[in-house]
Structure formats: C-alpha cells, structure tokens
C-alpha cells in the first residue's frame, strides 16, 4: 500500500512540475520548442551535426525586413515575411556560386539578388526538400516541371537545421524532407537532370568535377 501511495504521489508531483514549467514558458520559448521537435523528427539520427545543434537556439530571422532592398519589399508586398537568411546559390548548369538571400513568407520562398527576385517558389507547388547526411549545409528545393520554374534550387546555408525547419513548417511539408546518402538528382530545367555527389575530405569545398557533377566535400 505504501509503495502504491508513493508511486501515486510521485506521478502527481511530476504532473504539477510539468504544468508549472509549461505555464512559465514564454511564447517565444514555446515556438522554439515546437520548431526543435520538427527538427528532431526530420534530422535526428540522420544528419551529422544534429546533436551539436540541439543547444543552439533558432533565431526568428537572420536578417530583418528592413535589411531587404525596398524594390524587393515592393514586389512581395502584402506577404508576411517570416524569415530571411543569407545563402550561397549554385547555378544549375555551371555550378557557379552566387551570394543570395532566401526570403520565406507565409506563402512562398524567394531567392533574392539585391533588388531582384531571381526565383519564387509557392509552397503549394513545392515537391520536396533534400539535404545530405553529412555536415555540409547544402539544401535542394525541388520544384515542379513547368514554365514558371527554371529548375530546382541548390543552396548552401550556414544554419541548415534552422533554415530547413523554418521552410518545412511554413510550407507544411515536413514529410517531404529527405536526408540522402551518397548522391541526389536535381532538375536542371527543360527535362534535364543533374547529379550532386556528397563525399568526405580534409577540407570543405563545392566544385564541378571532371564528369560534370557537382561534388560537395
């Protein structure tokens, strides 16, 4: 009887502690925890660097709305900007690296160059999001084959766990995130495909190899 009473009191105490903790959470902290739960579901046990990322809080955004060019703000007016981060975009053909911004709104993702919108991806049309299982920050956003899109978007993000989590939550496409090993295929445009190869080496680098593939070390 004493054992049963002790166990019952222990459970009641635990529930009270949990209730007190939950009531004491700020709105910002609740959002953090909700996002980290999604990150865990997508990356836990799949991508290198995940465990190290646990102790790093996600920022609401890496750049403020007023850091964007006024022309860009004018073009996406009416959309609620949720997240902005600097990225490196790789051309789909020559794989030249270009500095860009990734802007996530409530309904679309934009790849931005200074005062120009280079590509717009509506979340409703997004076909998938791919990353490798290694510690690189490569993210491929897969888009539909239509005249509106030039092909899949190849990005390198410094805060890859944060960026992918924000994107899949806003797009409500958590199930479409794939963590791949070895290589992945991406659409170049006009029905053509390219291959990206992931490997391990002494120093990080991204380059076009002799076979024309994009190699990520």
How would you explain this protein's 3D organization?
This protein is of the alpha+beta class and 217 residues long. It has a domain at 46-180: Pleckstrin-homology domain (PH domain)/Phosphotyrosine-binding domain (PTB) (PH-domain like). It is 29% helix and 32% strand. The protein has 5 helices and 12 strands. The protein has helices spanning 2-24, 27-43, 50-53, 70-75, 160-171; strands at residues 81-90, 97-105, 108-113, 116-122, 128-132, 138-142, 153-156, 177-180, 183-189, 192-198, 206-208, 214-216. Strands 4-3-2-1-7-6-5-8 form an 8-stranded mixed β-sheet. The longest helix is centred in the N-terminal third of the chain and has 23 residues, at 2-24. It holds the Pfam family Myosin_TH1. InterPro entries: Myosin_TH1. Residues 47-217 form the TH1 domain.
Architecture per CATH nomenclature, i.e. the level-2 architecture of the domain at 46-180: Roll
**Low-confidence spans:** none
Q: What spatial order of strands do you see in the largest sheet?
A: 4-3-2-1-7-6-5-8
Profile the largest sheet: 8 strands, mixed
CATH class of the domain at 46-180: Mainly Beta
* Strand tally: 12
Concise synopsis of the structure shown:
With 217 residues, the chain is of the alpha+beta class. 29% of the residues lie in helices and 32% in strands. It has helices spanning 2-24, 27-43, 50-53, 70-75, 160-171, and strands spanning 81-90, 97-105, 108-113, 116-122, 128-132, 138-142, 153-156, 177-180, 183-189, 192-198, 206-208, 214-216.
